Amino acid sequence: MPVVCLIDYGAGNLHSAKRGLERAAPSPDWRVEVSADPETLLAADRLVLPGVGAFASCAAGLRARDGVEQAIHEAVSKQAKPFLGICVGMQLLADRGLEHQITEGLGLIAGTVRALDAKGLRVPHMGWNDVRARKEHPVLPADSDAYFVHSYVFECEDEDAVIATCDYGETFPAAVAKDTVIGAQFHPEKSGAYGLSFLKNFLEWRP
Amino acid sequence: MTLKTRLIPCLDVKDGRVVKGVNFVDLRDAGDPVEAAAAYAAAGADEICFLDITASHEDRGTLLETVTRTAMEALCPLTVGGGVRSADDVLALLKAGADKIAINSAAVRDPSVLTEGAMAAGSQAVVCAIDAKNVAPGKWEIFTHGGRKPTGIDAVEFAREAERRGAGEILLTSMDRDGVKTGYDLELLRAVTDAVNIPVIASGGAGELQHLSDAVTEGGASAVLAASIFHFGTYTIEEAKRAMQEDGIPVRVTW
């Protein structure tokens, strides 16, 4: 029975992410675990890191759970498990975040999370916007609209990690990927058919 | 490649059933909120809004259960408002499956609840709902309790304060127009959208498709909310989006 573990560290979109994954499950034998127990993380087949709110508070929440950060590094670096970060969960993949203060991220994809340069447009960037693939990736569905809610963006040091972009004042990464790790700035769990395909593709992804 | 203007059907929910108040008084039953929300999401609604008008705070369980069942069905964002008094109420609704929480009277009583909600859940989850009545040319006052209780607070000033306090969005309802289908109060809308840099949802008064476009092109709204024109089948979500598109407004094409 394949198990996907949704990392529970107090993120606000945990429940909707759980429902999204359950709906996207390719077959009924999939199980979605919600846990902050390092053993459970290491035993799962795939990991999902949700996240809404501020980078600093999400990072603090994650680090308040004993052994979770180490388990994430072990699952990704040693076990090569497929790992998905959603919204702030995607931003946490970066080396650092600049929201409110400088906060260290997970350092799984090189880059910095900085304020979106909306060039006078309203912030947060809230609503449906085009996701445009920059390169082929097994998890990306055909280009469509997805639901975004954010004020910060992931500036990747490695351009190669940017697999899809979106425009709002500036062009910023809508999705990033490296090895077995993928992140979405949008909310696949709220993005209708596009989001459902994205989640299903992630669950079936064999990097 | 652009952010789409959101079209948001709003369901007034009382004791777990959909109602639509004409000027918040004359209530009519219009069905099951979960089914209605799922149908709207499938029809291309960009977001769904529930406003709970259940009188008693003790009946909160019914709302939470409705929210949970809706979140299971509708794969689009769900905003829930009505009777939200504290950061704990915000968290309980988020936990039930809502994405954004509208805070109305409690924020008028004490705007620090917006900050507390934003600290607990992030600004993106906190919507400040403002019910305003035109009291003099170019002046709008906030009213609470379904439009019965004046507060003496200027609506435009309060919108600015809400942004400063951490709200991520404003849901602006004209109490003069709500339920009367003569169009949104565009002057009020323009005054508020000019005053803040967060998204503003236009609410109260949509009766024809042209009203939706006007709220965006003339009022500067980022999203338009409507109830009765959809609930009673006057127009479909697709018809509304096509009409907006014809007026040059970017919409999410779902047909």
UniProtKB/TrEMBL annotation, chain A:
Its annotated pathway reads: Amino-acid biosynthesis; L-histidine biosynthesis; L-histidine from 5-phospho-alpha-D-ribose 1-diphosphate: step 5/9
What is the species of this protein? Parvularcula lutaonensis
Reaction(s) the record says it catalyses: 5-[(5-phospho-1-deoxy-D-ribulos-1-ylimino)methylamino]-1-(5-phospho-beta-D-ribosyl)imidazole-4-carboxamide + L-glutamine = D-erythro-1-(imidazol-4-yl)glycerol 3-phosphate + 5-amino-1-(5-phospho-beta-D-ribosyl)imidazole-4-carboxamide + L-glutamate + H(+); L-glutamine + H2O = L-glutamate + NH4(+)
What is this protein's record name?
Answer: Imidazole glycerol phosphate synthase subunit HisH
Role of this protein:
IGPS catalyzes the conversion of PRFAR and glutamine to IGP, AICAR and glutamate. The HisH subunit catalyzes the hydrolysis of glutamine to glutamate and ammonia as part of the synthesis of IGP and AICAR. The resulting ammonia molecule is channeled to the active site of HisF.
Can you give the residue ranges of the Glutamine amidotransferase domain?
6-203
Q: Does the keyword Glycosyltransferase apply?
A: no
Tell me which domain of life the UniProt entry assigns to the organism this sequence originates from.
Answer: Bacteria
Reported EC number(s) for this entry are 4.3.2.10, 3.5.1.2
**Oligomeric state and partners?**
Heterodimer of HisH and HisF.
Asked whether the keyword Cell membrane is assigned, the reply is: no
Single GO MF annotation: lyase activity
Q: What InterPro entries does the record point to?
A: Class_I_gatase-like (IPR029062), GATASE (IPR017926), Imidazole-glycPsynth_HisH (IPR010139)
Query: Which compartment or compartments is the protein found in?
Result: Cytoplasm
Keywords on record: Amino-acid biosynthesis, Cytoplasm, Glutamine amidotransferase, Histidine biosynthesis, Hydrolase, Lyase
Q: Name one Pfam family in it.
A: GATase
Q: Which residues form the active site?
A: 87 (nucleophile), 187, 189
From TrEMBL, chain B:
This molecule's function is given as: IGPS catalyzes the conversion of PRFAR and glutamine to IGP, AICAR and glutamate. The HisF subunit catalyzes the cyclization activity that produces IGP and AICAR from PRFAR using the ammonia provided by the HisH subunit.
Q: Which keywords does this Swiss-Prot/TrEMBL entry list?
A: Amino-acid biosynthesis, Cytoplasm, Histidine biosynthesis, Lyase
- Please give the PANTHER family that the UniProt record associates with this protein: IMIDAZOLE GLYCEROL PHOSPHATE SYNTHASE HISHF, IMIDAZOLE GLYCEROL PHOSPHATE SYNTHASE SUBUNIT HISF/H IGP SYNTHASE SUBUNIT HISF/H
Pfam families xrefs: His_biosynth
Q: One GO molecular-function annotation for this sequence?
A: lyase activity
Catalytic activity field: 5-[(5-phospho-1-deoxy-D-ribulos-1-ylimino)methylamino]-1-(5-phospho-beta-D-ribosyl)imidazole-4-carboxamide + L-glutamine = D-erythro-1-(imidazol-4-yl)glycerol 3-phosphate + 5-amino-1-(5-phospho-beta-D-ribosyl)imidazole-4-carboxamide + L-glutamate + H(+)
The answer on whether this UniProt entry bears the keyword Transcription regulation reads no
Similarity annotation? Belongs to the HisA/HisF family.
Q: In which pathway does it act?
A: Amino-acid biosynthesis; L-histidine biosynthesis; L-histidine from 5-phospho-alpha-D-ribose 1-diphosphate: step 5/9
| Quaternary structure and interacting proteins, as annotated | Heterodimer of HisH and HisF.
Name used for this protein in its record: Imidazole glycerol phosphate synthase subunit HisF
Coiled-coil segments on the chain, per record? none
- Could you tell me the EC number(s) of this protein? 4.3.2.10
> Subcellular location, in the record's words?
Cytoplasm
Checking SUPFAM superfamilies in the record gives: Ribulose-phoshate binding barrel (SSF51366)
Q: What is its main location?
A: cytoplasm
Point out the signal peptide segment.
none
Catalytic residues as annotated in Swiss-Prot or TrEMBL: 12, 131
- Enzyme class name: lyase
